[in-house]
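Why does residue order matter? Because the sequence determines the fold. Keep that principle in mind as you read this record.
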Amino acid sequence: MAALAASAFALSACSGGSDPEKTVVMYSSANETTVGILQDSARDNDLKLDLVTGSSGPLLERIKSESKKPKADIFFGAPVENLAPYEEYATPVESSETEAIDPEVLEQQEGWIPINGHVVAFMVNTTRLDVDAPTSWEDLLDPKLKGKIIVASPEDSSTALVGLYAAYKTLGEDDFKKLVDNLEVSDNSGNIYPAVSQGEYQVSIGYEANIYPYVANKQPGIEMNYPTDGTAIAYDCVYLVKDSPNPQKAAEVVDQMLSKDIQIQELEDSFRRPVRTDIDPSDYTDFKSLDDLTLVDIDTDEDEAGREEFLELWKELTK
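Structure:
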């Protein structure tokens, strides 16, 4: 935990010697490629983007602890469920670029601005698989897959929570219990994709942005399959920190993040699905259009309580 905290608060760029009026500080849980694109974009627009990177939980707690004298201008990289408890430390942000986002998606994010969408998919290594590559949650119930499916814990990983909660809503409680019986749970959420890549496991459940690099690099035997009986999408959102040092320039950075050019670059370089409706991901990747997927709504009025019930069931099944 100490190492995690240290890495979460590591400053990846320093503002010393730069014009503070042109410097924006972002706390972000996004990966190096993603935030690197944002830094380059800021530089091209005569801004300096300083980054503090790490896990979203510790970063959000840091914003809370600094609330009397904020140091960050922007937080980026978590879904609305993670952000809601920190609403009092955020300030509304408006951007003309949101006109390119589906109004229904904006409404679902409850005032937070979505930047990228993440769709749940299976990463499959077919090289040692003795059944057909799974393409549905129902397929994962096959007893032959027992111990061959790796996931992170939904108690610790927002990705796992979104994926497994979608499975729970799709399968129902009885079949979900069968799925859990087939799973191996990793304490390290970053390990689940390399473990399948290396053949230690045959299937992992995660986001397409984390799976697709293996497909794009044409690793033999690696497939990305969307569950045909119901997948889900979650959005990484951005917010401006209340009473931040440089809110005006921070708003400019948000505009850049939502611009068409940057959304396309993030898709091409870090495989993050754009939120803009004027970009078709299939023009740049093998991602399926949302219209071609069976989407499970995990953001209804009942789902806040539903997720709590789900996590209680998970604890009971995995204790």
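Residues 303-318 form the longest helix (16 residues).
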